[in-house]
Design a protein that fits this description.
Blueprint (H helix, E strand, L loop, with lengths): L1 H13 L10 H26 L5 H32 L2
Helix pairs in contact: 2-3
Length: 89
């Protein structure tokens, strides 16, 4: 119970240290588009994994490959978002 009350306190204390930059409208729309595409791709991957009819090893291999691609996409998108915020400073 103590942890639940400490978390909001930590968040509120860290707010002044956040970057105070604003993204442009086009950058915000690009971020939203990237998030939507990543979510759609993730759902398609989960559906393909759930219906995998290959051997268990092949299915696990495909699952690992999908997770790696999803992580790489997320990192690339977050990098672009950070660059956009920094460029506006």
């Amino acid at each position: 119970m103590k942890i639940i009350s400490i978390i909001p306190l930590i968040v509120l204390m860290s707010l002044p240290f956040q970057a105070n930059a604003a993204e442009t409208l086009t950058e915000s729309m690009q971020d939203l588009k990237n998030d939507t595409q990543r979510e759609a791709k993730q759902k398609i991957n989960r559906l393909e994994e759930a219906t995998c009819m290959k051997s268990e090893t092949e299915c696990l291999k495909e699952k690992a490959k999908n997770r790696l691609e999803e992580t790489a996409d997320a990192i690339a998108d977050k990098y672009d978002e950070i660059i956009n915020v920094i460029d506006n400073d």
